[in-house]
Amino acid sequence: MSGDFVRTAIVAMAVLVATAPLTGQTPGSTGCQSDIVSATVVATSCTHAERETQVLDLLVLWRGRAGWFQRTGSAGGGTGGSSTLSPGLKGQVSRYTRYGDVTIAFSADFDAQTVTIDDSAIRLDTINIVMVDGVDIPGGRTIIRMTRVDPVLPLTAATNLALAQRSGDVRDYLQCQLPMPPPAGKVVSPPLRVITVCEQLQRLR
Questions:
Q1: How far apart are CA 170 and CA 165, in angstroms?
Q2: Which of the residues 39, 151, 182, 205 could staple to 66 if both were Cys, CB 3.0 to 4.6 A apart?
Q3: Which residues pair with 32 in a beta bridge?
């Protein structure tokens, strides 16, 4: 298979899970995943289960220019990281996701309520949403806002959609007025397309 096909397939697999609820986490432990949610934003959501609910521990909104996550590059694409879990604790998570030459990454200790993004160490005792802008601009990545939303969601809710419905700050940050650009370079046939949170919000109006 060609390099372009492999890179496109990686992006396609990532976008297919754009609004799915988190799976595979044990009660009490925190699980994280990154999804394309608008033309400019990838959302990393981390939740843990409590009885019949899921509780948001962290939402990072990574924003760049429209379609930044579709661009191919020498680094290709992929996801990796590690988790440290102990009974009764939410645990520690380190995670990165690569889109072409752009990598988004964080390291969090959810029991100590801290997260590190690039060189910024952030306390999570009063906030649970971090908005990062300029992710695809070399040297331009900046945390522009931190806020908090009611973290308790239905266990089966599509996490990113539920948070966008709950928070005007999240909806505004998605820039839903911007259209998704066509993928650059070669694409798979038939093309695979993400249904973004913006599109789902529009359908619910």
A1: 8
A2: 39
A3: 46
